[in-house]
Design a protein that fits this description.
This protein is about 40% helix and about 20% strand. By secondary structure, the chain is an alpha/beta fold. The protein has a seven-stranded parallel sheet with strand order 5-2-1-9-10-13-14, sandwiched between helices. A three-stranded antiparallel sheet has the order 7-6-8. Strands 3-4 form a two-stranded antiparallel ribbon.
Length: about 300
Amino acid sequence: MIAILSGGTGTPKLIQGIKNVYNPSDLNIIVNTVENDYFSGVYVAADIDTVLYTLADIINDETWYGIKGDTFFTNESLEKLDCPELLRIGDQDRATKIQKTILMEKYGLSKAVDIQRKKMGIESKVIPMSDEHSEIIVKTDIGHLKFHEFLIKHQTKPKVFEIEYTDVNPSSNIIETIENSEMVIIGPSNPITSILPIVNLEGVEKALKNSYVVAVSPIIGNNPVSGPAGKFMESMGYEVSSFGVASIYKSFLDKFVIDVVDTKLKNNIENIIEEVLVTNTNMKTISDKEELARILLE
């Protein structure tokens, strides 16, 4: 049994490889929820849906958001009605989100997601990090912004001073899932807004310290694999590099995987992480993803 800590872009690429070389029914994927919010009255759990769509082989793997081949009639109609949406939500994707919103009213988020993954024929467990609503506030030079305002409306351009997110309780089976896993994999997602919100839940860091934990760096050279990870790391005082990521995870990490571009950092990282492996982490093809998955699982 393996647990994976995931955000919404970098880690699903890795999951795409892992599910092809490992028994999917033995995967438990714990997903960040602090970026969840309501849009047009519909609950949007973008990172969770990206993981679901990846496992169901319907993800739009050009954008790593939404469903491949989706249409946008509702989104475009809202635009014409002078009711534009901050997020561009596809029609099939919106159906998933509407169902989740309805199910949540009766069952809560974790149960709603479990119902959805079964309907999609997904064997792996997908576990929201919390059933309680949380949100990220990005403190910038133009004021306090919600995460999607910063990411989409302002295109990550403002200078970031600080990141805050609401404290919530972990969903009921997260600690047990981590403790019962042979290995915990932290994928190459944004360490500040995707992974740390999970790690900082009560009991999670302690559980990780008692587990075998492997992480893939989301930074290659000085460039994040995706998203505003660099700005967020700088705002928290971390170097934007694989060494900076290792500094964030050092209290619980057993093995750290970095890209060949960062070979020169290996010796420095070994001062804070016991084992450092250098390989290709730039997942451009399905073969790249599967090969990285095999290396992690070994």
